[in-house]
Amino acid sequence: MRTPALVVAGDQDVGRHLTTRGADWYADPYFLSPGPKCLLTSFWGKHGLGGIAGYDAVETTDESPERVEAVGRLTWAYLRSVLYPDDPSWSTARTALEAMDHPPGRAECK
Known about the structure:
The protein is α+β, with helices and mostly antiparallel strands. It is 32% helix and 15% strand.
């Protein structure tokens, strides 16, 4: 995977249905892929990242409208900046995230 990508992972995603390695396994595309990548780690996020289960799905093990909103807002900012390289949305969102007293997550890029 050499194209730019945003990898989003919950730091509490420890469901045994996909891996026995633990939550860090979901960040492998960021750490193991070449090219420009960013990793958004959702603090206390499980597999549903706050309730994102799919279109018309009602099940979740991780209901948090605040987490869903944060993931959505940060994903939007990343996509906006990748699609429009002069748009500062991603850097602005990362700066705002880092400045929060209790951030909903952490973003890093390589």
